């Protein structure tokens, strides 16, 4: 009997698909049934070959051998996952297999994972595509009923190959040129370098910012209304002339305030749009301090493992009209605490295609991140998973409620021929904000209402105090991971020249990088010590600043990489030939190499230690990593490295922060940023004492039993009295 091979991206998804397709026979790297054989990748099993594959001259890094421009890039099986590749290959080449169903993640990278495996195996069997955005049993079942012809996704595959080859030509050549020219571990890339440049620009803006002092005038009245002075022509509340501000206050303090206008306008705020990945990463960073990478990792678990959220790597905030029939079941799945009360209010709500969140034109490969038709069990999710799941559910449920409505009242008055105003707000319909009413991290506007007493036009009110408040203009805030994600999505403000056409291009492409890659880019900048995080803010390091000084300026511009993304999108839509784009990238890589070769600049390490490298004798560098500190040789060709400290889970007895461990063997010492230090022996003694002080579960259980006995009804005075009554 002829069978179909289903190629999934990860084992967990493969198991789900196999269960739905009634495949129960487990083999070496596959699960088989009567009609289907389900096998899986482990992410990428095949990748582009390293430079040394194209000739012995590339085995050592030399500036004179650059640029490296192989006519065709080769595919190689990744060593660490080669066992699974051969397991997949064996299933694809089986004689009883008539067709292959690609079931990798429904996106550009997912398409590349599958197609590169098929290309390396040289399989020529008919291809179909499973395109689903959640991995619930229902979604899988419906997806297999609507399998697509894989030819429809060839443009997406060509786009993915073009992106990968462009990164190879530009990244490999640029990185080797910088490293060999300046004898330092330096790297550049079409997305990471403009991202680094954005952080540097913000640093520059803060450094060159000059605060300007200003004053604001507030007027307190006997009726309890506080008015604010504002310029009648411009509406500006700030006064930048100190002398004028002082004179105004003196004059206004003696005057009588007269109401000239009272205006009440009914306003409304619609529910926020559904989450795409970037906004969800931004909110998670702002509310919980999660990094972009961490948020994506948690979302991936909620999608793959728990199956309670849809596909996370999306740039859309809308749903397609064909999803309307699934929405009641998704709302029902949200009928768990703390959402029960909110869900009960949606029982009689009619769900139609007219909802603001339904828009076919604004759904690209994937719709917004929303809950699936499956509820999480009460104890299934970790604390972090629960936080993100609730964020998505609140945003989803809010979409079905009416707009938040309020009356905004503006009172305008005259005080010694100067205009002063007071604004008040009164909620008329809570609308979608009912969803956030019990959420401490997202207070509804209801709490911030400012009621104003009734006044009439022409009414005169006594002034009790005129106060002059001083302030000064503030520099732009440093970027956090959340605000950097926003900047990557909308980098128009970071263009050196205000070119409207370039700004439009950035708008069309959705910024630099993609929703799926931005978290990795930020992580890479940290891991290569080009940026560092202090508290929650990102700072460029001296190494990062020097790198920008050495890299050609056009590679730093957001416009260039946005233009590339636009071309990649055209390749995906069949409007641009992949080879034309790759040829352009080769030319660009050549220009970068030539520019670096001709540079007369130098690179100076700012983290040199006094210790020589035991292998080559050059002085070692001290670098920070996520897990502590290490010393590495400054010569990239040497490659020596050694960990010297490690961040542990042990807590400082003074400030409770995580301790770092330094040294080796008996001489190991714990150290804290607050200055606390203790030897390993002292730490272990302290730990033993603490363990003795801790109460075991058995002791707690015995104590509760004893308390229950003490509180037993038979031992009370009332029980004794009742016993006597019984005897009588």
From TrEMBL:
* Protein family per UniProt: Belongs to the type IA topoisomerase family.
Top EC class of this enzyme: isomerase
Any one Pfam family here would be Topoisom_bac
Give the catalysed reaction(s), semicolon-separated: ATP-independent breakage of single-stranded DNA, followed by passage and rejoining
Domain Toprim positions: 3-136
Q: Which gene encodes it?
A: topB
GO MF term (any one): DNA topoisomerase type I (single strand cut, ATP-independent) activity
Q: Where does Mg(2+) bind?
A: 9, 105
Organism of this sequence = Halalkalibacter alkalisediminis
SUPFAM superfamilies referenced in this protein's UniProt entry, alphabetically: Prokaryotic type I DNA topoisomerase
Q: Where is this site: Interaction with DNA?
A: 61, 168, 176, 313
* Record-given protein name: DNA topoisomerase 3
Task: List the HAMAP family.
Answer: Topoisom_3_prok
Keyword DNA-binding set for record: yes
Q: Which cofactor does it need?
A: Mg(2+)
Q: Where is the active site?
A: 311
Q: Which CDD domains match?
A: TOP1Ac (cd00186), TOPRIM_TopoIA_TopoIII (cd03362)
Gene3D superfamilies xref list: 3.40.50.140, Topoisomerase I, domain 2, Topoisomerase I, domain 3, Topoisomerase I, domain 4
The EC designation for this entry is 5.6.2.1
What does the UniProt keyword field contain? DNA-binding, Isomerase, Magnesium, Metal-binding, Topoisomerase
What is known about what this protein does? Releases the supercoiling and torsional tension of DNA, which is introduced during the DNA replication and transcription, by transiently cleaving and rejoining one strand of the DNA duplex. Introduces a single-strand break via transesterification at a target site in duplex DNA. The scissile phosphodiester is attacked by the catalytic tyrosine of the enzyme, resulting in the formation of a DNA-(5'-phosphotyrosyl)-enzyme intermediate and the expulsion of a 3'-OH DNA strand. The free DNA strand then undergoes passage around the unbroken strand, thus removing DNA supercoils.
Residues forming the Topo IA-type catalytic domain are: 153-593
Domain of life from the UniProt record: Bacteria
Note down the stretches annotated as region Interaction with DNA.
187-192
